[in-house]
């Protein structure tokens, strides 16, 4: 897909850069804390998320004022200012749209849906919260804000460890550099402070849009209790909890997150593919489909039993499955192999 860049100007002169990919029914994506439309598009994992969400439709996302391709502004960060920027981007569409907010963008998207119900077809909230003050203890918040302001390099490293704890060292280092390229330390501090100040508890009861709240159970940046509160506050909202610790939507099991979102939006869902598995993991999946236990897998592949168990667990998480039986059925469907009959070679682990 090709990314098309443009910008819109608010009444006060604020310029907001936005990007579109794909065509068709629009999905407006309100991103989290710090963003950069061009640099984010160059990160393979982040780009893969956007392309997957845009399949068969149009994905529109933007850099909030002071981030990425949007120039800095003298206006202080606030929910009202966030809604102005979202409104300016939405006005370019000229039609109702699906709306997705991630992290800090989730309460912003919820507030928009509460105020403009006719403009939103479906609402998706990922990694969000109701009250930012409940994300961490006051002392922790002040320490993090002070660190970002005084030592932006170290602050970005610390926050990257929170946002993507399962990423390897090289990936975390790259993410920290990306955050520093997105904005100045002052803007990063102000937007992080806004994240802690956001409170949409009084607005959720006014949301009438069909809503999906999706969250990873081990999210260290936004406790899962906040997702539960979001879903409880919106009438008829659907709550889906996924395994994993990454706060960043494009880290961890990105494919399963996309499947959940596209299914809710009524868009076609692609079959799970094997490209995301390593060669060794595909071998293990094949043996699981034959009904092999972890011990038998270890013997066949010349590895220890604990390694075999680890491979099975990583396959399960990568594909978003809950059991070995699902891995076996998936592998069989991929290669047209009939799974073993119950009890035929499949023995307790």
Automatic annotation (TrEMBL):
Natural source organism: Paractinoplanes hotanensis
Q: Give UniProt keywords alphabetically.
A: Hydrolase
PROSITE patterns, alphabetized: HTH_LUXR_2 (PS50043)
List the Gene3D superfamilies: alpha/beta hydrolase (3.40.50.1820), Winged helix-like DNA-binding domain superfamily/Winged helix DNA-binding domain (1.10.10.10)
Q: Name one GO molecular function term.
A: hydrolase activity
Output the InterPro entries linked to this UniProt entry. Answer: AB_hydrolase, AB_hydrolase_1, AB_hydrolase_fold, Sig_transdc_resp-reg_C-effctor, Tscrpt_reg_LuxR_C, WH-like_DNA-bd_sf
Q: Which is a Pfam family this sequence falls into?
A: GerE
Recorded protein name is Alpha/beta fold hydrolase
HTH luxR-type domain residues are 270-335
């Amino acid at each position: 897909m090709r990314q098309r860049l443009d910008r819109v100007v608010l009444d006060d002169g604020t310029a907001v850069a936005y990007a579109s990919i794909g065509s068709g029914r629009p999905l407006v994506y309100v991103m989290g804390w710090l963003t950069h439309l061009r640099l984010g598009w160059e990160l393979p994992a982040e780009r893969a998320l956007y392309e997957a969400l845009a399949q068969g439709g149009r994905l529109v996302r933007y850099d909030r004022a002071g981030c990425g391709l949007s120039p800095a502004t003298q206006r202080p960060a606030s929910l009202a200012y966030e809604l102005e920027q979202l409104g300016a981007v939405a006005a370019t569409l000229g039609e109702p749209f699906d709306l997705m907010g991630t992290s800090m963008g989730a309460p912003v998207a919820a507030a928009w849906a509460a105020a403009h119900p006719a403009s939103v077809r479906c609402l998706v909230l990922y990694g969000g919260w109701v009250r930012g003050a409940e994300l961490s203890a006051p002392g922790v918040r002040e320490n993090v804000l002070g660190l970002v302001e005084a030592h932006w390099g170290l602050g970005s490293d610390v926050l990257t460890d929170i946002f993507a704890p399962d990423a390897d060292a090289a990936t975390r280092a790259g993410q920290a550099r990306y955050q520093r390229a997105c904005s100045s330390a002052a803007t990063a501090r102000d937007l992080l402070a806004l994240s802690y100040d956001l409170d949409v508890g009084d607005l959720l009861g006014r949301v009438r849009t069909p809503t999906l709240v999706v969250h990873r159970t081990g999210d260290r940046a936004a406790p899962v209790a906040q997702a539960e509160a979001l879903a409880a506050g919106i009438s008829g909202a659907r709550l889906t909890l996924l395994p994993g610790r990454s706060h960043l939507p494009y880290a961890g099991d990105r494919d399963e997150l996309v499947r959940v979102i596209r299914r809710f939006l009524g868009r076609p869902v692609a079959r799970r593919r094997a490209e995301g598995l390593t060669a060794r993991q595909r071998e293990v999946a094949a043996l699981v489909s034959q009904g092999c236990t972890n011990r038998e897998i270890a013997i066949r592949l010349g590895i220890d039993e604990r390694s075999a168990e680890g491979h099975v667990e990583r396959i399960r998480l990568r594909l978003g499955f809950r059991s070995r039986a699902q891995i076996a059925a998936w592998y069989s469907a991929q290669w047209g192999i009939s799974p073993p009959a119950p009890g035929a070679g499949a023995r307790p682990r």
